[in-house]
Amino acid sequence: MIKVLIVDDHHVVRRGLLFFLKTQKDIEVVGEASNGKEAIELTASLQPDIILMDLVMPEMDGIQATKHIKAKYPNIQIIMLTSFSDRDHVVPAIEAGAAGYQLKDIEPDELVLAIRRVMDGENIMHPQVTTQLIQNQEMTSELPHMLHPLTNREQDVLGELTKGKSNKEIASSLFVTEKTVKTHISNIFAKLEVQDRTQAALYAVKHGLTTTE
After folding, report:
1. What percent of the chain has pLDDT over 90?
2. Are residues 22 and 90 in the same domain?
3. CA max distance for the chain
4. With bands split at pLDDT 50, 70 and 90, how would you rate the model's confidence at 137?
């Protein structure tokens, strides 16, 4: 069972998430919190696997709560679930340690899939968020690719990764094996000095290594 803690200051949102997640055989909602401080307290006592974290809340926001939780419990994964898709909210959330960033208009089935993928060690970003980050990049498209240490194939893999694709989907798109994809991703992390897929995607956006096509 994947133990989930729901954190949102709106009762209706929490009720809606609880109602749907309770129908999933592999997911157990172990608690609810209405702000960041409650989230920290409940995390200590409940030890969830995944936290669905709202971004803007009274007393303590989701970014501050994420920093506290990840510092003490690095193995607990946090998915931001919010209405904000702009760079000023997304980047601080990822830098705080969020493994996923999803918008509240996400389809329930897609949210469940995101929870399962984050539980499996992936980092998931809502496609709309990725697109907006790319569209709002500043001057990065003018940087020549030669300034970056990636091979052409690694850039291909990074481009697919930035679209939120899984290793299996990347392998199918590029006509290679999943093992080859894993090797390329490992090399990408090492060369770019990033820790996970989301940080790699942000690097790609910041340095013009991907497009909206």
Report:
1. 48
2. yes
3. 51
4. low
CA distances 49 to 45, 53, 93, 106, 207, Å, are: 12, 13, 18, 21, 33
- The model's pLDDT over 36-81, given as tens digits with 9 standing for 90+, comes to 999 999 999 999 999 999 999 998 999 999 999 999 999 999 999 9
pTM of the model: 0.67
Please report whether residue 213 resides in a domain. Answer: no
For 50, other C-beta atoms within 10 Å of its C-beta total 23
- What residue numbers bound the domain in which 188 lies? 137-206
Statement to judge: residues 106 and 88 lie in one domain = yes
From the number of C-beta atoms within 10 Å of its C-beta (0-12, 13-18, 19+), residue 194 rates as middle
27-33 and 50-53: which strand pairing? unpaired
- The answer to whether residue 132 sits within a structural domain is no
Strands of 100-103's sheet, edge to edge?
Answer: 27-33, 2-7, 50-53, 77-82, 100-103, 124-125
| CA–CA gap between residue 88 and residue 92 (Å, rounded) | 7
| Number of domains the chain contains | 2
User: Which residue has better confidence, 30 or 93?
Assistant: 30
CB under 8 Å to 44, separation ≥6 — which residues?
A: 72
Cα–Cα distance, 189 to 187 (Å, whole number): 5
